[in-house]
C-alpha cells in the first residue's frame, strides 16, 4: 500500500483534491487527483468505471451525490494509507492533459473595474459602462475547440487591423497581444433545452473551477468587434489550468458579492452567496505584475449560469463558462495588460525593461489560491503559456 506525505501548508491537501487528466511516462492518459506533489490514478485506486476514460466528463456527468462519495472515498484511502501500489505517481513524472472535453465555451465580462477600463480604452467618447451592464452579466460565445491546456505554446495570431487614421486595414501578425486572467466554471450535469437553471441550482450543475487565460489580440479585436463582439481576436487560443478544483473545495472561499445596485431582475437574484475569495497572481516572465482579487467581481458564477440558460438554452457536461477578466480597483490588480499599461502608454517594468504588450518568447503564468476548509489555503495550480512567433505565411494568405 502507498502513503502520501502532505507537508504542512501544502496548497494541495485534503481540503483541495482537484481533478485532472495525466499520462505517466510512456503510458496512456487517465483521470487523477492531485495530493501534495503526487497524482493518484483514480481508476487504479477506486476501481470505478466513471474514471476509465482519459477525460473527467463521465464522472462530472454523474452529479453531486457521486462527486461527494468519490471525494469521501479518496480522502479515506489517503488517510488510511491504503492506496494500491502503482496508483500513486510523482507529479514531476507525469504529463498533464486537458482535463475535460470542452463542450461549449462562454466568456463573461463580470468585473466592473475591467469593464469600465476597457470601455474607456476602446470607446473613449462613450460612458465607460454600457447601459445594460448592471442589469445582466454581459458575455459572448467563444471557441471551445481552441481551449488548450496550460503549457501549450501560443502562436501569435495574424489578422486584420486598422488604426483610426489608416485609410484601409492591413493584414499581419498582431502587435498588441495580451492576456486576460479569469476563473472558469465547468458544467458537470447538463440541462436540457427549454430549462432554465436558477441561481440556487448552481451547486447541482457546476462541478468545479479552473484558471483561464483568454489570450487577446487587441488590435484585431478593436477593428473586428463592432457591432457583434469578440471574434478572431480571441478565438486563436484560450488556456486552462490542468486541475479542476471541485466546488466542494471552495466552500470556505464563498463570500457575498461586493453589492449590486440596481437590484437585478428576480431570475438573477441569489439565494446563497457565490462570490468567491480567490486571489490570483499574474507573472510576466517570472515577475508578478498583478494580483487580481476575484472577490471584487460584480456578478457571481451562479448569476452567469442563470442568465446563460434563462432563454431555454441547453448546457452540456464539459461546458466552460469563464468569468471575464478579473480586475480589482487598484492598478496593481488589473488582469489584462491593456489595462495594466493603459494601452501601452504606462508601461510596467519586466526584466528591467518597460513593457506594454507581449513579445515572442514571453511567458505568462497565472496562479491562484483560496481559503481552504481547515484554515489554510488551497491552490489552483497554474495556467501558463509562451508566445511563439507568428507563422511566416499564415495559412497561405499573403500579408
Ligand atoms: O469592451 C470590449 O469591447 C471588450 C472587452 C473584452 O475584451 C473583455 C472580454 O473578453 C471579456 C472579459 O474578459 O472580461
Ligand atoms: Ca475574456
Ligand atoms: Mg492546505
UniProtKB/TrEMBL annotation:
Its EC number is 3.7.1.2. Keywords: Calcium, Hydrolase, Magnesium, Metal-binding, Phenylalanine catabolism, Tyrosine catabolism. The active site is at 114 (proton acceptor). Its cofactor is Mg(2+); Ca(2+). Substrate binds at residues 109, 123, 221, 225, 325. GO terms for molecular function: fumarylacetoacetase activity; metal ion binding. Ca(2+) binds at residues 107, 180, 182, 214. One of its GO terms (biological process) is homogentisate catabolic process. Pfam families: FAA_hydrolase, FAA_hydrolase_N. Residues 16-99 form the Fumarylacetoacetase N-terminal domain. Residues 106-374 form the Fumarylacetoacetase-like C-terminal domain. Pathway: Amino-acid degradation; L-phenylalanine degradation; acetoacetate and fumarate from L-phenylalanine: step 6/6. This is fumarylacetoacetase. It comes from Trebonia kvetii. The gene is fahA.
Amino acid at each position: 500500500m502507498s502513503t502520501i506525505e502532505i507537508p504542512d501548508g501544502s496548497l494541495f491537501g485534503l481540503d483541495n483534491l482537484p481533478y485532472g487528466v495525466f499520462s505517466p511516462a510512456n503510458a496512456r492518459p487517465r483521470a487523477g487527483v492531485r495530493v501534495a506533489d503526487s497524482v493518484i490514478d483514480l481508476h487504479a485506486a477506486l476501481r470505478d468505471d466513471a474514471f476509465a476514460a482519459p477525460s473527467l466528463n463521465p464522472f462530472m456527468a454523474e452529479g453531486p451525490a457521486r462527486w461527494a462519495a468519490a471525494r469521501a472515498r479518496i480522502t479515506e484511502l489517503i488517510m488510511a494509507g491504503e492506496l494500491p501500489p502503482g496508483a500513486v505517481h510523482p507529479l514531476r513524472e507525469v504529463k498533464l492533459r486537458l482535463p475535460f472535453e470542452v463542450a461549449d465555451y462562454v466568456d463573461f465580462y463580470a468585473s466592473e473595474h475591467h469593464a469600465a477600463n476597457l470601455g474607456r480604452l476602446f470607446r473613449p467618447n462613450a460612458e465607460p459602462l454600457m447601459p445594460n451592464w448592471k442589469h445582466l452579466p454581459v458575455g459572448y460565445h467563444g471557441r471551445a475547440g481552441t481551449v488548450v491546456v496550460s503549457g501549450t505554446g501560443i502562436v501569435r495570431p495574424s489578422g486584420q487591423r486598422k488604426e483610426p487614421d489608416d485609410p484601409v486595414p492591413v493584414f499581419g501578425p498582431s502587435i498588441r497581444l495580451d492576456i486576460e486572467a479569469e476563473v472558469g466554471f465547468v458544467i458537470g450535469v447538463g440541462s436540457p433545452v427549454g430549462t432554465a437553471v436558477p441561481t440556487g441550482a448552481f451547486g447541482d450543475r457546476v462541478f468545479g473551477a479552473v484558471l483561464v487565460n483568454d489570450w487577446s489580440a487587441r488590435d484585431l479585436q478593436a477593428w473586428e468587434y463592432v457591432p457583434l463582439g469578440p471574434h478572431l481576436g480571441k478565438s486563436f487560443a484560450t488556456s486552462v489550468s490542468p486541475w479542476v478544483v471541485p466546488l466542494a473545495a471552495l466552500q470556505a472561499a464563498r463570500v457575498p458579492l461586493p453589492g449590486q445596485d440596481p437590484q437585478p431582475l428576480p431570475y438573477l437574484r441569489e439565494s446563497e452567496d457565490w462570490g468567491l475569495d480567490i486571489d490570483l497572481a499574474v507573472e510576466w516572465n517570472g515577475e508578478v505584475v498583478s494580483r487580481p482579487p476575484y472577490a471584487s467581481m460584480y456578478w457571481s458564477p451562479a448569476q452567469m449560469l442563470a442568465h446563460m440558460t434563462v432563454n431555454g438554452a441547453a448546457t452540456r457536461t464539459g461546458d466552460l463558462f469563464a468569468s471575464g477578466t478579473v480586475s480589482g480597483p487598484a492598478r496593481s490588480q488589473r488582469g489584462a495588460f491593456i489595462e495594466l499599461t493603459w494601452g501601452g502608454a504606462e508601461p510596467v517594468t519586466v526584466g528591467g525593461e518597460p513593457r506594454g504588450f507581449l513579445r515572442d518568447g514571453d511567458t505568462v503564468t497565472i496562479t491562484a489560491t483560496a481559503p481552504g476548509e481547515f484554515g489554510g489555503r488551497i491552490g489552483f495550480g497554474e495556467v501558463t503559456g509562451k508566445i511563439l512567433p507568428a507563422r511566416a505565411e499564415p495559412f497561405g494568405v499573403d500579408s
